[in-house]
Amino acid sequence: MVEGTVLKTIRLGALALAMAAPGAFGAAMPGPCDRFVGKLPNVSKSLCEQARLVDSGARSVQGTPLYVRDVKPPDARLRVLVVGAIHGDELSSAAVALHWLRLASDEKVDLPQPVHWRFAPVVNPDGLLAHPPKRVNSKGVDLNRNFPTPNWERDAQTYWQQRTRKDPRRWPGPKPLSEPETRFLHDEMQKFKPHLIVSIHAPYGVLDFDGPSVPPSRLGRLYLDQVGIFPGSLGNYGGVHKGVPVVTIELPNAQRTPLDAETRQMWLDLLRWTSAKIQGDAAAAR
Length: 286
Known about the structure:
The structure is a single chain. By secondary structure, the chain is α/β, with parallel strands linked by helices. It has 2 domains: 1-28, no CATH class; 31-285, 3-Layer(aba) Sandwich (Aminopeptidase). It has 9 helices and 9 strands. It has helices at 2-20, 32-36, 45-51, 91-106, 125-129, 152-163, 180-192, 234-241, 260-285, and strands spanning 54-59, 65-71, 78-84, 115-120, 196-201, 206-210, 218-219, 222-223, 246-250. Strand 1 (54-59) and strand 2 (65-71) form a beta hairpin. The protein is globular and about 50 Å long. It starts with a helix and ends with a helix.
């Protein structure tokens, strides 16, 4: 009788623990589609699931996984890294990255040399998932001012203090690569060694470019308008300092994506320019 009472007490205790902490007993953690569908414009559950995003192993400040996806045809030697939502309030940038991922996976475009694509559609999930979304990460750092450009300690702080008047949306952080999100991208550049980086932003409606090679004159309805170099930016670090061309796409609206036809046209224009310019540069460097 005593033994039966003890066993019953143990079972009830285990049940109470399971109800109090379901995650500890195998409840599924939210996946990328659980997090992003309903948050990103023009992103259906089907589109998100087709993306088949993979946990990179890296985490944001708040512990959210940073997801990636590779699309690698056989014998692909040209490597292109596509990133979105470095600024969390630029929701359309992540959405367009996911649409382009689908096009890279599904559409067969005849290129002289196949491309190995690596997509990181949401680099700043904490900012994107905040209510309301925020440009900065959860520590208040503008990730696109946190890359280790030369003289960062002097130039980034001076620019923030004097040119932005200490705008909190543009704080570069306490030191370069202080944030796990920028360390993630920095590590991806080191490991993946892209021949081209495409960084999707919003809402200025232009095309920017940093680094060697001849920039594209237009992608879809976006025309080249090089807006300058910023201390700690990905374009400055990758394009100017590391010599990896960086195409920065500024979509016209941070909350809405372009029409699907325009999104596809930008993608096709990017493919043509990549094939004509970056492929030639990569071949010359070998």
